[in-house]
Amino acid sequence: MAEIGFYLLYIGLGVAALSVASSLMGVFTHSPSLIRVGERGSLALLAIVTLTMILLARLFLMDDFAVQYVAEHSSRSTPTLYKFTALWGGQSGSLLLWVWIQSIYTAAVVLTNRRKNRDLMPYANAVLSGITAFFLVTLCFASNPFLRLAAVPLDGAGLNPLLQNPMMAIHPPTLYVGYIGFSVPFAFAMAALASGRTGDTWIRTSRRWTLFTWFVLGTGILLGSWWAYLELGWGGYWAWDPVENASLMPWLTGTAYLHSVMIQERRRMLKVWNMVLIAASFALSILGTFITRSGVISSVHSFAQSSVGYYFLFFLVVIVFSSIAMILYRLPELSARNRVESILSKESAFLFNNVLLLGITFAVLWGTLFPILSEWVRGTKITVTLTWFNHFNVPLGLALLLLMGIGPLLAWRKTSTVLLLRSFRWPVLITVAGSAALVILGVRDVMAAMSYTFCLFVLACTAIEVLHGAAARRRLHGEGLISSLVHLVGNNKRRYGGYIVHVGIVMIFLGITGSSAFQQETTATVKPGESFQLGPYTLTYQEVIFQRTARAESYTSRVDVARHGTPVATLHPAREIFPSFRNQPATEVDIYHALSEDLYVVLLTTTDAGGATFKVYLNPLISWIWLGGVVLLLGGFITMLPDVRERRFAYQASLELKRVAT
Amino acid sequence: MPFNKTRIRLLLGLGVILTAFGYLFISGMQASQVYYLTVDEYQDRAATLAPDEPFRVSGRVKPDSVVLSDTGLDLQFTVYAPGHANATMAVAYQGVVPDTFMENSEVVVEGTMKNDVFQAHTLLAKCPSKYEALADEEAQKEAEAGGRVTGSDT
Predict the structure, then answer these.
(1) Which residue in B has a C-alpha nearest to residue A608's C-alpha?
(2) Are residues B63 and B29 in the same domain?
(3) Distance between CA A639 and CA A498 in Å, rounded?
(4) Which of A150, A593, A648, B2 stands the most exposed, by the fewest C-beta atoms within 10 Å?
(5) Exposed (0-12), middle (13-18) or buried (19+): which is A421, by Cβ within 10 Å?
(6) pTM for this entry
(7) Residues A278, A257: contact at Cβ < 8 Å?
(8) How far is A608 from chain B (nearest CA, A)?
(9) How far is A407 from A287, CA to CA, in rounded Å?
């Protein structure tokens, strides 16, 4: 069976290459049948890759340790769920998952677009199939998951217990779906450039794909930081690790793109810029893969130092240069028809938003690549510490936050002074009052105070903007407050979904500010019955219970928690040891969640006499990060829903098309 | 291209932002650069480093060198550079020890050298064999030893 999988990958590569070739030939020779061959090829490719996925999954379920990849990532005692997740627990399996997701995207694009977008589709299909072909090349020639071992082992090495976590089933695939999704708008952008149809069609066609990608990548980043918070036991959720950075960068440029396309749609400006942004987002996704797999940058997420990374580097160079070449080729047609007319306009707010987002992306990229760059240039590896990321990104993040309040209240083209005063009167008053309250409450950290103040400002601006809209509806349609709000959002999902995303971002800012500026921690070595204190909390250690199962040995403690003297929870932080896996220890933290703060308790050691040492963190407002994440995703979801305006637009466009055709 | 008022204002705004970028860039780089060395590179370079200059070192945890206090907070161990038999460095660290810290695991420590002991304020240990690093080596060793890939009984 492993042989079938091995050769199916080669067949897949052939089909992908055929798909690229016949799509392009079809365009150049004006042959619809060749184009159709290309499209069917993409569908066939999905079938082939799906089959290989099934084959590999079966090999895992059958414990076929003759296959090297299975032997290295699974074992007889691995629970069934983790036999599945082990499929992407290693290098080549995760590449196969990548190809599978890519071919699903490609087939979905073909199926939803082949009747419309006749001009763009052959090119888009060629680009997408070309990307799939590249991944198949790495699978076939550098990292085939179906390779067999000369000597068949009795049992496999197993999956590290630290990775035997349900998040392992969700998190990597989510990130992949997010990363790979950028290939769709990228393909349409390249198709627009190749076909010369550089209008808004490619943007409108790929809008929902881009939103989906942005949404899923955002989910992946949030899940990753949540997982790190729950599992890693250092009380934090983000460490500016290269692998984390790699996922953040395309999301940031994607965010910039989602804002700047609005200028193109409204005002026919920034066409080149949008092309650059979407190409950059896709290139950064690939760069992320290169970073995480080549081993050139050291990260706590270890990956094999393998040649696969250099395939990605090559691919990255191809993407960057072909994008630049295509954009230059169409440069004359991409010139803007309009200009920014006033600095007090939505256009200029979006422009500054883009500059700031790109600035942050640059800082993250620079900090991530600096060790390699310094080694090339100076011959010595020099790295930047966490200080770099915070030093650069805190002020930029704050400026971006401020802009998030201002932007939505500005008008397109030009905001009159009267309107400006009227719009910002209340937000500014509320913000001034709020910041006075902060000073009275004793917040002395300047950056934190600024962050809270700006958060309040954005919320006030957004609320005013939404209430204005609702008030207009109430006057026109005589609706109640709630129903007017619902209709308001429903009638312009894009805009108000966007505002909900903004509120989510504000909540995330609150959480980040609170937990990073005001975190407290303590360490205590205690005997049963003894108590210790952190902030308003009293922790009373009761006992530790030892348990031995076939899988692990565990020490589970019991700690009673009281807040201002009132009992609120009993926590069970624990330590586990997996004798079957090189005595791998695992810290199981326990957390008391409240809206105002988390009490994060880590059991460090226990003594035979029943004593224990705990590390405890008090993380103010940290839950707001995850709550904000949920709000952000909800807003993102709303923007993706079908929209009346959009349908009207599409209808008009189709009428236009018919008129041209007849 | 006419330089009207809006254009000048926009350019001014961009100029302010870019100046801020420049300032943040220079001050940030000054504040945050540290050498990133392997244990053997450190030994070659030790003489040129200022006494309390912070730096970052990567290496592997030497087997049988790990001493952990009863509280689980005071950790002492030795790191070595694979392939350089004499390149070792004593490390002292106070804080939460990551689960991935084990003998032979790859670690990155950041701190300063004091009396020939590296005082680490951060300790990173690589995530487990997610992408094969350790499993590969073990498989190789096992394969050499007797053509068997095992993990469960080592």
Answers:
(1) B70
(2) no
(3) 7
(4) B2
(5) exposed
(6) 0.90
(7) yes
(8) 10
(9) 31
Is the CB of residue B123 less than 8 Å from the CB of residue B95? yes
Within 13 Å of residue A311, how many CA atoms lie on the same side as its CB? 19
- Per CB-CB distance under 8 Å, the chain B contacts of A75 are 151-152
pLDDT at residue number A317: 93
The pLDDT tens digits of the residues spanning B39-74 come to 888 888 877 888 788 888 888 888 889 998 887 788
Q: For residue B150, is it within any domain?
A: no
**pLDDT by residue (tens digit) across A502-550?**
999 999 999 999 999 999 999 999 999 999 999 999 999 999 999 998 8
pLDDT computed for residue B145 by the predictor: 41
Exposure of A660 in the CB half-sphere (CA atoms within 13 A): 6
Distance CA A185, CA A188 (A): 5
Q: Quick one: tokens of A553? A: 């040995």
Computed over its alpha carbons, how large is the radius of gyration of chain A? Answer: 27
- Nearest CA to CA, how far is A49 from chain B (Å)? 22
Task: Give the C-alpha distances (Å, rounded to integers) separating A340 from A417, B8, B105.
Answer: 17, 11, 56
Whether the predicted pLDDT of B20 surpasses 70: yes
Residues 6+ apart with CB under 8 A from A26: A32, A33, A34, A35, A36, A37, A38, A122
| DSSP E strands, A594-641 | 597-606, 612-620
Measured between CB atoms, which of B21, B29, B36 is closest to A359?
Answer: B21
Q: Give residue for tokens 């990321």.
A: A389
CA separation for the pair A660, A505 (Å, rounded): 44
Tell me which residue of A592, A611, A613 sits closest to A535, measured CA to CA.
Answer: A592
CB contact under 8 A, A523 and B135: no
Residues of B in contact with A582 (CB under 8 A): 102, 151, 154
A67 DSSP 8-state letter: B
Same domain, B46 and B69: yes
Q: What tokens appear for A479 in the block?
A: 């609706």
Cα atoms found within 13 Å of the Cα of residue B34, Cβ hemisphere only: 22
- Provide the pLDDT confidence category of residue B142 given band limits of 50, 70 and 90: very low
What's the confidence (pLDDT) of residue B136?
Answer: 41
Q: Which two tokens stand for residue A16?
A: 């992908």
A655: Cβ contacts below 8 Å, ≥ 6 apart: none
Same domain, B17 and B77: no
pLDDT at position A232: 76
Report residues of chain A scoring pLDDT below 50.
Answer: 303-304
Q: Which of chain B's residues have a Cβ under 8 Å away from the Cβ of A233?
A: 96, 98-99
Query: All domains of chain A, ordered by start, with CATH?
Result: 1-164 (no CATH), 390-518+627-640 (no CATH), 520-623 (2.60.98)
ipTM for the predicted complex comes to 0.81
In terms of domains, do B40 and B4 share one?
A: no
Please name the residues between 281 and 300 in chain A that touch chain B, using a CB distance below 8 Å: 292-293, 298-300
The pLDDT assigned to A15 comes to: 96
- Helix H or strand E encompassing B11: helix B5-32
CA B130/CA A167 separation, integer angstroms? 14
Measure the CA–CA gap between A615 and A608, rounded to whole angstroms. Answer: 19
Kindly state the percentage of chain B with pLDDT values over 90: 20
- Written as one letter, the residue type at A459 is L
Which residue in chain B has the smallest CA separation from A239?
B124
CB-closest option in A73, A381, A605 to B36: A381
Nearest residue of A to residue B58, measured between CA atoms: A298
